[in-house]
Structures are given as C-alpha cells and as structure tokens.
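Page 42, continued from yesterday. The earlier attempt failed because a stray header line got pasted into the input along with the sequence. Redoing it now with the clean sequence only.
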Amino acid sequence: MTLGEKQRLFAKLLGQFLVWIYEKPGREVTGGEWERSQAQADANAASGAGISNSLHLKRLAVDLNLFIDGVYQNQTEAYRELGEQWKTLHPLCRWGGDFTTRPDGNHFSLEHEGVR
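This time it went through. Structure tokens are written below.
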C-alpha cells in the first residue's frame, strides 16, 4: 500500500472512529496534531517526548484529547476503550497506549514502514 493510499485510509478510519466516540454518552474529543513539522518532531525527540520519524510527519497519526462529561482525561488508562476500538478498525491501526517505552494514550496511528 502506498503512502497516499494509507493517508486516505487513515482519514476514512478516523472519521468512523470519531462517529463511534460520539455515540458514547458524555464523550467528546478535540483534535491534536494530525500533521507535524520535521522541526517539531526533532524537538520532541530531543526532549524525549517523541521520535524524529513520527507518523505525524506523514499524516498517519493523530492525537485526540478525550473529555468525559466535560472533564479532560490526561491518563493513558482513560483512553483504553478508545485504543481497543481503534485497533479493531484495521490490522495496521496502532494505539499509543500499547507503547512499552512511553505509553501515549491519546495517540492513534496507522503503521507505516515499521513505525507505529
């Protein structure tokens, strides 16, 4: 699958995912980074907050900010149900809460060239 095909698939899956989230009473999200500059990715890598070859650079990842009954959720565990649902949408869907080095609960991506 080409990068362009994956980008279009990611957008389609993200739309389906957002509809699913909003079907749950009391759940809302705001969007975080869907696209990131190389400079930002490098800065995140230098600070330990990310990697320089982030899927955000390729528009294959998004960070979503979850609110439950109006309260922002900043713990990975609060995103677990979302992460488990995201992974059912396609075999390439990855959830940042599964990252072993530094779990990132609000990160949802589509694997590309071994990057999750």
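Notes: The chain has one domain: 3-110.
Reminder to self: strip header lines before submitting.
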